[in-house]
Amino acid sequence: MGITCHLIDNAWNIQKRFLAYRCFNDPHTTQNISHLMFIFLEEYCLTSKNFSISFDNASANTCSIDELIRMCRPSIGGKFFHIRCTCHIFNLCVQDGLKSPSAVVPGLMHSICILFLLFTAVLQLLSVLGFDPMSLWGLVVLLSVLFSGNPGFTAGRGFNPAGDAPGGG
């Protein structure tokens, strides 16, 4: 188990320190995790000085937070004590998405091909119409021409998909 500490020093500078790394061969139960964490915090006299702890989202880690709150008595009653690890959450989302790529990838590839073809066609149309396809003005003119026939488009007032003018008039 590795422990890092992030703190604000007396000059209000953010500091980071690597505190400890210990081999954790015991079963990863709530009691074992919270006990080892408490030993680390006690060793560095941080049991009453910590504001929050970031764990990944394993159930034993989440449950050990309650034990640590009971043992450490953090500030603000532990309301912000457990900060979930954003990287771990993102990794779980990616892993879940990769479990069934056969359902997602063909549709995604098809959408990318259509967008590429549409973009190429727009650039060619701008060139044919005499506009510089790389200028923003050419794109603005093209979009205003495309949306001018739509009943929901009102010049200078935005687009309303309901078809009536924005703002009720």
**What Rg do the Cα atoms give?**
28 Å
Strand content: 5-15%
Q: Enumerate the strands of the largest sheet in spatial order, edge to edge or round the barrel.
A: 1-2
Low-confidence stretches: 151-160, 165-169
Shape: elongated
> How do the SSEs run, as a string of H and E?
EEHEHEHHHEE
The helix tally amounts to 5
How many strand segments? 6
What is the SS-derived class?
alpha+beta
**Count of domain modules:** 2
> Span from first to last CA?
64 Å
The overall average pLDDT, rounded, is 74
The biggest beta sheet is recorded as: 2 strands, antiparallel
Which bin fits the share of residues in helices? 40-55%
Work out the oligomeric state of the chains in this entry: single chain
Subcellular location: Nucleus
Keywords: Membrane, Metal-binding, Nucleus, Transmembrane, Transmembrane helix, Zinc, Zinc-finger
InterPro entries: RNaseH-like_sf, ZnF_BED_domain_contain
Transmembrane segments: 108-129, 135-153
Descriptive tags:
elongated, alpha+beta, two-stranded antiparallel sheet, 5 helices, 15% strand, disordered C terminus, 169 residues, two-stranded parallel sheet, 6 strands
Describe this entry's structure for a reader.
The protein has helices spanning 30-43, 59-72, 86-99, 101-128, 136-147, and strands at residues 2-8, 14-21, 53-55, 82-84, 153-154, 158-159. The chain is of the alpha+beta class and 169 residues long. It has two domains: 2-93, no CATH class; 100-168, no CATH class. The strands form three sheets. A two-stranded antiparallel ribbon has the order 1-2. Strands 3-4 form a two-stranded parallel sheet. Helix 2 links the parallel strand 3 and strand 4 (82-84). The longest helix is centred in the C-terminal third of the chain and has 28 residues, at 101-128. The protein is elongated. The termini are far apart. It is found in: Nucleus.
